[in-house]
Specification:
Elements (H helix, E strand, L loop, with lengths): L2 E5 L2 H23 L2 E5 L3 H12 L1 H4 L6 E5 L1 E3 L9 H8 L20 H16 L8 E4 L24 E6 L4 E6 L1 H4 L4 E6 L5 H9 L18 E7 L7
Parallel strand pairs: 1-9, 2-3, 2-5, 5-8, 8-9
Antiparallel strand pairs: 4-7, 6-7
Helix pairs in contact: 1-2
The chain binds 6-phosphogluconic acid (6PG).
Length: about 240
């Protein structure tokens, strides 16, 4: 059963999510000596990164023990305006003391299939096993029900063996790199972040509608042995 946290607006949501990130990081570092998080693209997650960058509690974190990964990436170079890595770099990484070796970006500038294989090797190097067990996976939600780069009707939804794949998204006429649901679902905690009235319909469908993960890939996010949380503002949660 998923937990739902409601916030007055998008700013309060970003603050709440930043606090949760700091809490989980502290706890993981104390209990297991390190913290691993997979980050998401999108506007709602971006507000969280800006909040973290400005937070005194985040500044006190031991970033040398934190490893950041990405849940998905657009197939563009890191300095491209559409790059998810580039977005996090500007919003967060440029403001915190994290060693460069702890920042594990997906290589959107490479041939997609090769970049996906290389990212699996990167995950294997850190976690020692695939699929990885992230301490935290942050996810956005698209109005079509996509999450990470798991879009409705795409090949990545049928993938059962791989942790990372290149996924062709015809409606965007683009390739994406993405964690598979199988990899996401091994996480200790998964948080969806969604704000605004535009997300209200799809949130109702994903949470309370019939189970149709090919149509609404976000429904395929079901942690095997972890916690699933929805961080929503009141506008996004209006039909729950
Ligand atoms: C991406 C994402 C994607 C995103 C959603 C929600 O790279 O685009 O990782 O899954 O999180 O599309 O985006 P918004 O928060 O901007 O609506």
């Amino acid at each position: 059963m998923a937990g739902i946290e409601r916030f007055a607006d998008a700013a309060a949501l970003a603050e709440g999510a930043a606090q949760r990130f700091v809490y989980l990081a502290d706890q993981a570092i104390q209990e297991r000596g390190g913290f691993s998080a997979a980050l998401s693209g999108g506007s709602t997650p971006k507000a969280l990164y800006a909040q973290l960058a400005a937070s005194p509690a985040a500044a006190r974190l031991d970033w040398s023990r934190i490893h950041l990964f990405w849940g998905d990436e657009r197939c563009v170079p890191p300095d491209h305006p559409d790059s998810n890595y580039g977005m996090v770099q500007r919003a967060l990484l440029a403001q915190i003391a994290i060693p460069q070796v702890n920042v594990h970006r997906m290589r959107g500038e490479e041939v997609p299939d090769q970049a996906a294989l290389a990212y699996e090797q990167d995950l294997l190097g850190y976690f020692g096993v695939l699929p990885p067990r992230f301490d935290l996976v942050l996810l956005g939600l698209g109005e079509d029900g996509h999450t990470a780069s798991l879009f409705p009707g795409t090949a990545a939804l049928a993938e059962r063996a791989r942790a990372v794949v290149a996924n062709r998204v015809e409606k965007l006429n683009a390739w994406r790199l993405t964690l598979t649901a199988g990899a996401i679902n091994q996480a200790r905690e998964i948080i969806f972040l969604a704000a605004g009235e535009g997300k209200a319909d799809i949130i109702r469908e994903v949470i309370n509608g019939p189970y149709q993960p090919d149509l609404y890939p976000a429904q395929g996010v079901e942690p095997a042995d972890g916690r699933l949380m929805w961080f929503l503002d009141t506008a996004a949660a209006r039909y729950l």
